[in-house]
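Progress report, Aim 2. The chain analyzed during this reporting quarter is listed below.
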Amino acid sequence: MMPKHARRDFLRRAAGATLALPLLPRAPIFYAAIASSPAVKTFRGIFAILQTPFTLRDELEEEDLEREVNFCVRAGAQGLVWPQLAGEFYLLSEEERRRGAEILIRAAGGKCAVVIGVQATSKEIAIQFARHAESRGADAVIALPPFVGPVTLEMAAEYYRAIAAAIRLPVIIQNSGGEWGPALPTSFVIQLAKENPRLGYVKEEIAPVPHRLGEYKSSGAMTGIFSGNAGRNLLNELARGASGTMPACEFVDVQVQIYSLATAGRWTEARALFQKLLPMIILEETYGVAFDKAVLVRRSVFHSAKRRGVPGLEVLDSVDQQEFDAWWEQLVPYLKA
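Predicted structure tokens for the chain:
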């Protein structure tokens, strides 16, 4: 696995390099496939990336997953997304992914949008996941590009076109780069959106994310423009016309309040609350999914911070814990769920 800081540097360089690549020719057959497409959906707000709970025996903890859905709904999340990178999709079997998707859709009960992750090593498997999500009532699907072996932009385009042609839901393109497929140029994503409006949705994680979101907004082709990266640039991105962000869910109630303040024009209050959350974002960026799960345990959502295949449960050492506790006190008044 590429170290975090090396991966960030790689993403910056890859983004610059891929911008010079030629755009792909449009596929005439694709237009016929979308002629009867339903109207596109508008998504706005905080779309929480759910973590995947495991028992101490490394089994999917379905009750905790349902509790996590209820937690996010109470917190006011406008959308739920699972299973993506912070959901450890790569550790789940195909059956677990289908069963988990059904739990999300059923537990959400239409109270917010549900987006199901369908990325796979081949377009055929991704289409199977997408059709299953659609049949169970998902509002959209999201997919990383193909991520095994050398993947060209042409291969990525065919993969996304195939998913979009197989269902009638919006398809969110997750652009994370690194070990998770090629870093897609903004011009490439915009072209796909122009071909098929149901591909006009992106979760962008290639640096510099705020500038890239501005490009999407200026294109006029994109319907949903989201970031990830724990929501660390949320206010900068909203000022550029972003639709929202997709952070891990442990502080989704705080993220929703920041979003609501900013979109109501109360920027000073939004910045003040964001400043209180920022130390937690830094801890999440440092310790990753393990930190997300530890917070969900503290918030009585998960029984355990277990990661599949990882023997220990401890994430923070005594110094980390002291820092965490100090910042936690500032956030307590804003923990609504």
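The beta strands are 45-49, 79-82, 113-117, 140-143, 171-175, 201-204, 224-227, 244-245. Residues 267-287 form the longest helix (21 residues). These observations will guide the mutagenesis work planned for the next reporting period.
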